[in-house]
Structures are given as structure tokens and as C-alpha cells.
Design brief:
Rossmann fold, 7 helices, alpha/beta, 166 residues, 11% strand, 5-stranded parallel beta sheet, binds shikimate-3-phosphate
């Protein structure tokens, strides 16, 4: 059984995947993204899974994929923004070097502008993002060993901040 160097959590638009790639390159490891694992495993897009199985079905699948990834991957892991909603997934993260990328609405909006691949954020982006973040902030904090603000920082700067905390 392996253990990841870092597990990045945070809301959509926090830059988790970009930071994971940069951090992996700097640490001589690889990045793994659990949303990509889900798409590869099922042969379906995240939007299709939500449409066919609803959010509960997606969270079950995500739980399986995150559980496997934390056992198998020794590099940097980026989780989907809602992974922490599943109590079993929070349990799987216990004791791991989990980093919460704490982001504000304006940064998230800038990163995700024109991208409609997130079923929970297709309409009324600002209000829904703020609602998700308010519900999930305590969950991110409950699993995080380290909190890194992304506010006004480039993914490279965020990767440096995370690196210095590992
Ligand atoms: C979700 C975030 C997405 C993806 C799915 C659900 C969420 O990942 O897992 O659309 O519930 O916030 P990102 O955080 O990478 O956008």
C-alpha cells in the first residue's frame, strides 16, 4: 500500500488539477485526478453520470475511485470538489497529507468562465458556488492538514506554498 505525497481538495475553480501537475513535476512524482479516473473507468462524462445516476450515484462511484487512488498513488492527488461530501470518503482521507486550496468566488469564476462541464454549477454560477462553498467549507477544514489560500496567486505560486508545507 502506498500513500500520496499530497491530496488536494477544494471547490471547483480552486486550480486543484493545475497545482497537482506543477507540484508533481517539482517533486519528481506524477499527478492523478480522480475525476479523470471516473471518466476513464466508466467511459462516460461527469455530466452523463450525473444525468443517469444523480449526485448520490456519482458520489458512490467517486468514493470507490478515491479509495483506490489513495491506496495506489504515491504522487499528488487532486480530488473532485464535492468528494468530501461523502462521509466514507472523508474517512478514507484521515491521516493523509490533505491540503485545502481555499479560493474565493472571483478566482473560481475567472478559472471556470465558459466551462459548463460541472453539472452542479451550470446555472446561476455565483449563487450556487457560494452555497456549495458555505456547505463544504467545514468539511474541507475537517479533512485538511494544511490550508493554502489561492487568492491572487498563480497556480505556480500556490504549488510553491503547498510544497513548503509538505
Ligand atoms: C463537483 C466538482 C467537479 C466534479 C463534479 C462534481 C462538485 O470537480 O467532480 O462536477 O460537486 O463540486 P472539480 O472540483 O474538479 O471541478
Amino acid at each position: 500500500m502506498r500513500s500520496p505525497l499530497a491530496v488536494l481538495v477544494g471547490p471547483p475553480g480552486a486550480g486543484k488539477s493545475s497545482v497537482a501537475e506543477i507540484l508533481a513535476a517539482r517533486t519528481g512524482t506524477t499527478a492523478r485526478d480522480t475525476d479523470q479516473d471516473i471518466v476513464r473507468l466508466t467511459g462516460r462524462s461527469i455530466g452523463q453520470i450525473f444525468a443517469e445516476q444523480g449526485e448520490p450515484g456519482f458520489r458512490c462511484l467517486e468514493h470507490e475511485v478515491v479509495s483506490a487512488a489513495v491506496r495506489e498513488h504515491s504522487g499528488v492527488l487532486a480530488l473532485g470538489g464535492g468528494a468530501v461530501v461523502h462521509p466514507g470518503t472523508r474517512e478514507v482521507l484521515r491521516g493523509l497529507p490533505v491540503v485545502f486550496l481555499d479560493t474565493g468566488l472571483s478566482d473560481a469564476e475567472q478559472r471556470l468562465r465558459g466551462n459548463d462541464s460541472r453539472p452542479l454549477l451550470r446555472e446561476d454560477f455565483s449563487r450556487r458556488w457560494l452555497t456549495l462553498m458555505a456547505e463544504r467549507r467545514p468539511l474541507y477544514l475537517s479533512v485538511a492538514r494544511v490550508v493554502v489560500s489561492t487568492q491572487g496567486r498563480t497556480p505556480q505560486q500556490v504549488a510553491s506554498a503547498v510544497h513548503s508545507e509538505l
